[in-house]
Amino acid sequence: MSFSLAYLFPGDVLANLTGIVPANDEQRAALEKQFRLDRSYLVQFFYYMGDLFSGEWGYSFTSGIPLREEIGIAMPATIELATYSMLMALVIGIPLGYYAGMRCYSSSDYIINTTSITTYSFPVFWFALLLILVFSLQLDKAPLSGRISLLFDVEPVSGFILIDILLSDLENKRLAFKDAMSHLTLPTIAIGAISTASIVRITRRSVIDAKNQPYIAAAMSRGLSGGQIFFRHILRNALLPILPLMAIQITTLITNTMIVETLFSWPGIGNWLIQAIYQRDYPALRVGMLAVSSLVIMLTITVDMFNRLIDPSREKYEHAAI
């Protein structure tokens, strides 16, 4: 699909790939030979795959920098924001979901469930704009954009701003860390709140299903206390169905992250792709789409492999279901 984008973009294919409008037929023929446009579509695709695996991803029209370097800078920023948002969702969502599930159909359960459904219904761009309006513009409690103040010059090492600050030789390392945390807070909340609402609902449903299993009734008949039943039987058995559903949330998480990046001017892959669209940087769009798709696929496969590692019996039941 990324290879075909060069033919789907408006305009001439040669101009889309090179950014050059040939002045005459001789120049066009030379450029077509250089970029192998004189070959068949299938041959061009194999050359394209070879360039990808060799690291030759092309150059940006606007900056002239190799696209591999630009993606290497933008992608870690996106992964960082998505990682912190997912950690927030897990730390808050799973305990709340367990609490709501254990007290299902009570007043506290109705409050938690209603709040999670309402939060999950918020469009992420609207919720992010609301946070900016309240905490940045009215209360002036959080920065409006960026990853860190321009006062701090942090050399990128890992791509994660907090880790890079800890590894740096800055004199005011504590102030830099605090400043980076203030820049991270609002975009993380904007993404993490919606992910948290989803985790709460999934966990609650899983706990309720686990409570209704026959082995819970058997445990109660043996005289086990509520705490023993929870930690020995409900906790693990309710967690196992949650993990496969987390893989489904990865696509939503990355998508929401890319949307929020444009609102907070976060220098991630989403903001970078938006700028490429405005500037009609077609090689950047093509490689950027491929990078984002590869990230989502790799994360989904990783989570699924982790699920099979902690629950080997899951594959047996899946085969039986098929």
UniProtKB/TrEMBL annotation:
* Localization (cell): Cell inner membrane; Cell membrane
Q: Could you tell me which residue ranges the ABC transmembrane type-1 domain spans?
A: 75-307
The organism's superkingdom is given as Bacteria
**A single Gene Ontology CC term:** plasma membrane
Q: Does the keyword Transport apply?
A: yes
**Gene3D superfamilies in the record, alphabetically?**
MetI-like
Q: Which UniProt keywords apply?
A: Cell inner membrane, Cell membrane, Membrane, Transmembrane, Transmembrane helix, Transport
Keyword Cell inner membrane recorded: yes
Tell me a Gene Ontology molecular-function term this record carries: dipeptide transmembrane transporter activity
Listed Pfam families = BPD_transp_1
- Transmembrane ranges, per UniProt, are 81-100, 120-138, 180-202, 238-264, 284-306
PROSITE patterns xref list: ABC_TM1
> Could you tell me the membrane topology recorded for this protein?
Multi-pass membrane protein
Q: Which family does it belong to?
A: Belongs to the binding-protein-dependent transport system permease family. OppBC subfamily.
Its name, as the record gives it, is ABC transporter permease subunit
What is the native source organism of this protein? Alteromonas hispanica
